[in-house]
Amino acid sequence: MPNVISTNRMTLAYDKGEKEIIRNATFRIKKGEFVFITGPSGSGKSTLLKSFYGQLVPKKGDLVVGGLDMTNVSKKNLQKLRTHLGIIFQDYKLINEWTVAKNIVLPLIIAGYNVDMQQTQAQRLLKHVKLEGKGDMYPLQLSGGEQQRVGVARALSKTPFLILADEPTGNLDEYSSNVIWDLMENACDQLGATVVVVTHRIPTIFNIPYRHFIIENGGIHEVH
Amino acid sequence: MKSIKHHLMFILPLLAILLGVESFMVFGRVTASYGENLKKAYTILVVTRKPMTPEAFRKIDNNIDRVETIKRRSIVEQIAQGMSNISTQEILKSLPQFYTVKLNRYLSNAQIDVIKQHLIRDPNVRRVETFGQAHNANYNLYMLIRAALWMFVGFMVFTSLFLVVKQMEIWQLEHRERMQVMEILGASAMLRSGVLFRIALTDALIAALTTIGVFAFLRYGWVARSEIDLLMRKQDLFFQYKDILILLGIALVIVLVSVVLVSRNVKEVRDV
């Protein structure tokens, strides 16, 4: 299986680079794998995820995502890469003045799909995340769990090759969390997407094989 | 209600800028027309020993436009009523030549004094009369109107631009999250600013069309029916078709600059 993400002695730091968040990280994530990254608060889990979608450029070392060298990527190529990713945030990052359906098809709007295709896909995804009949509502009219399901539907709308999730169940109750984990499992198992999830805690019941990385004191190592 | 308020917060300062610009253009045309009339009415009287051609005058000073000869015969005939024809001819021979000189633009008293000096330096010129006092009063009034207009429009445009900048800051807060989310999901700058651009463009069109409407009404409605002869003869000073293009152009430039500035200022959030 080809690598979707590969790093070699990668160091991540903010601003002037005085404080290094991640040091000398070396690992590979292959196509179709489900990966959990855990670690204490402030350890750099979200920072690591941001480097995968190009919001942070490594200070040292190598990082390749989807075949693109992220240490030296052009703005145009980064934009193109991002349209093939599915990104899920802890705070959902939905556009509150847009309807649920429009939020879901945002990646399709960005990719220039026509309105008919957007509507068809919106209906399919609303059914998939069990939000049928709520397409015309606005995000703030939904519960936290429902909003995160909209976030997951948005991430799946363009069938991404890589899904990056930053604490997707961090703000949710147990029931809503289980629904989200089911959707993520399904995205990896049925759609064949690579899924990288940053979380405090791995769910107790998880039905597909996964890899587990832990970040501690700036270092990253895999738990076997 | 909130949406109308947001639109008005951009439309009103933009409207003030466009009204200021159009007022400036109208008053500019009115004062230019006034200056033209003053220029036409103003003459310098020149007395020369021998006849001079207009070209000779223009060589002395290039501000000289037209030169008209004052016919001496009719004056002499009035003075010499009852005298013999020979005496009239003698008077005519001994009289100098009289000219009225028109200028090609409206000049200050100091500038006219320079022309006077140029003329007097010519050995053929005996006397120059510039009627400086009346001219200076007119010129000062003309300059005062222009200065007052500049100050008024300048203040109006400055204040309105300040309000536009304030509105841009509000836009930045309102659209920051949406633009950031779109950027993370790979949207181009054009697409990210699209919504903002559409809102701003609509507002700019409303402001420009309102300004055009106000001044078109002024020309075709109020002035046309005013029955004030002076205004009716100069209707075109109040609104011209080229003003439509100028106003739409200015509105579009303000919109483009505002949207580009807002888009550039909305950066991706980088927090740990």
Structure described in brief:
By secondary structure, chain A is α/β, with parallel strands linked by helices.
Quaternary: heterodimer
Q: Please state the average pLDDT score of chain B.
A: 83
For the largest interface, the chains and their residue counts are:
A-B, 26 and 14 residues
Calculate the mean pLDDT score of chain A and round it: 92
Describe this structure in words.
- The complex is a heterodimer of chains A (224) and B (272).
- Chain A is of the alpha/beta class.
- Helix content of chain A is 31%, strand content 27%.
- Chain A contains seven helices and ten strands.
- Chain A has helices spanning 45-52, 75-82, 100-104, 106-111, 115-128, 144-156, 174-189, and strands at residues 3-13, 20-30, 34-38, 60-65, 68-69, 85-88, 162-166, 194-198, 211-216, 219-223.
- In chain A, strands 6-7-8-3-9-10 form a six-stranded mixed β-sheet, with helices on both faces. A four-stranded antiparallel β-sheet of chain A has the order 2-1-4-5, covered by helices on one side.
- In chain A, α6 runs parallel beside α7.
- The model of chain A has no long low-confidence stretch (mean pLDDT 92).
- Chain B has a four-stranded antiparallel β-sheet, sandwiched between helices.
- The longest helix of chain B is centred in the middle third of the chain and has 53 residues, at 132-184.
- Chain B has helices spanning 2-41, 54-60, 72-79, 85-94, 109-121, 132-184, 189-223, 229-233, 241-265; strands at residues 44-48, 64-69, 97-103, 125-129.
- Chain B has nine helices and four strands.
- Chain B is 72% helix and 8% strand.
- In chain B, α1 (2-41) packs across α9 (241-265).
- Chain A binds chain B through residues 14, 21, 42, 44, 46-47, 50, 53, 55-56, 78-83, 85, 87, 93-95, 97, 106-107, 109-110, and chain B through 177-178, 180-182, 184-188, 191, 268, 270, 272.
